[in-house]
Amino acid sequence: MSKIVNEPKIKNKIIVAVREQLEHRALWLYLLRDEAGKRGIDPNEFASDAVTRCGSIHGLHLIEKGKCDNMKGLKKTLFTKPAQWVFEMDVVKSTKKELFLDFHYCPLVKAWQKAGCSDEEIAQLCDIAMCGDHAIGKEFGGHLELPKCIAKGDEICALRYIRDKK
């Protein structure tokens, strides 16, 4: 029996539609990983690297868009009000050096649950998907800590971006 609890509270039609788009992309990741395994290719040899590259590209684009490379800039460009609604996110702390976020819902996890993934598979897929978030943090001059994670059975995803650059 699954230990992952991941049910949305916000049911707005637009937010649901955005979540469905994120679920669709999460399903891609699962199916790509599954098909690689069926062909004898270890997805661990490439999936994290591919998602990391995507995160770096995205991070650089966000810096250019917001003209700011600190954690306040990351909040302004990526963790906007609509994103906060989609992930049912609380901004716990937002300074130039630290951005602490608590996600109470994850559409990616929901997609993997719908696909019938085991808790172990969901945790592995989440680790791969989070490589993009780690890379974004790096582009913003810091790193990401994830002390809690819905995909691993916690009640929230606690994203803690911490700036390393002075």
Indicate the structural class: alpha+beta
How many runs of DSSP E, i.e. beta strands? Answer: 4
Number of helices: 6
**Alpha-carbon distance between the two ends:** 46 Å
Q: So what's the oligomer here?
A: single chain
Anisotropy-based shape: globular
Radius of gyration: 16 Å
Mean residue pLDDT: 96
Please summarize the sheet with the most strands: 4 strands, antiparallel
Low-confidence runs of at least 5 consecutive residues: none
Secondary-structure element order, N to C? HHHHEEHHEE
Q: Which percent range fits the helix content?
A: 40-55%
β-strand amount:
15-25%
Q: Strands of the largest sheet, in order across it?
A: 1-2-4-3
Describe it for me?
The chain is α+β, with helices and mostly antiparallel strands. The chain contains six helices and four strands. The protein has helices at 13-38, 47-66, 71-77, 81-86, 107-114, 119-139; strands at 89-94, 98-103, 142-148, 157-163. The longest helix is centred in the N-terminal third of the chain and has 26 residues, at 13-38. The radius of gyration is 16 Å and the shape is globular. The mean pLDDT is 96.
Give the arrangement of secondary structure elements:
Elements: H1 13-38, H2 47-66, H3 71-77, H4 81-86, E1 89-94, E2 98-103, H5 107-114, H6 119-139, E3 142-148, E4 157-163
Antiparallel strand pairs: 1-2, 2-4, 3-4
Helix pairs in contact: 1-5, 2-3, 2-6, 5-6
Q: In brief, what are we looking at here?
A:
53% of the residues lie in helices and 16% in strands. It has 166 residues and is of the alpha+beta class.
